[in-house]
Specification:
The two termini are 30 Å apart. The protein has ten helices and four strands, in the order ββαααβαααβαααα. It is mainly alpha-helical. A hairpin with a 5-residue loop joins strand 1 and strand 2. Helix 1 packs antiparallel against helix 2 and helix 9 packs across helix 10. A two-stranded antiparallel ribbon has the order 1-2. Strands 3-4 form a two-stranded antiparallel ribbon. The longest helix has 38 residues. It is found in: Membrane. It comes from Nostoc cycadae WK-1.
Length: 260
Amino acid sequence: MQFFNRVKFRTPESVELEFTLAGIGNRAWALLIDYFVLAVILLVCIYTWISISGQLADILQDQDTIGSQVGLWLIAITFLLLFGIYVGYFVFFETIWQGQTPGKRFAKIRVVRDDGRPVGLAQATLRALLRPLDEFLFLGSFLIMFSHREKRLGDWAAGTIVIEAERAIASATFTISEQAKLLYTELLSIADLSQLLPDDFAIIREYLQRRGAMAAKSRVALASKLSQQVAAIINLEQLPEVPPDIFLEAIYLAYQHKEF
């Protein structure tokens, strides 16, 4: 029996990747944390705006054209400011953190496009703008619970899904060398592993699981290519002087111990 919905992607390398959808529980927990962080931000902004708006009101009251409507102008500006912060919070973090907000990072879930690629500014903005509709009468929660891919309205519009930021599974299916165990601790300090996405990790895992069945020449070529691609992703200027297999094993271990 399958208790969790799974989704499959196929990479340009023709590797099929499978991930678990985040589910309503993880998403609610992430949203609760995000709203706590957002509430703190809003309180600071409101306190600052009250100080500024008081001085602004004194200035505007002296203007004949809008002096009598200064209160309405300030209320309108306040609502626009609060809505901008609300939307901007999710857009900002999901864009720069590749589909994660502070809440999602804590809950270890991530937003990706329907094809498994990272979300961009357009997808993050659509999701954020439609969030108020999703939260009206818990519409988004009902859609997530009864949708096969667990999508809310913002996900349908933006073409996104929310998956678990997967850690390693089935590590017993291949052997990790002692040399790789020594190297991975060094990688944690010199490489930017936050850039390594779940599908990147899954490709590395797929190779390590299947390398034993590969021809020697093909295995060396593929390991070298993967090592170079991974080094570029994690901003590693120079590959360590170890065989590509050792480097990929070390990356496999380092990914499991990185801070999401």
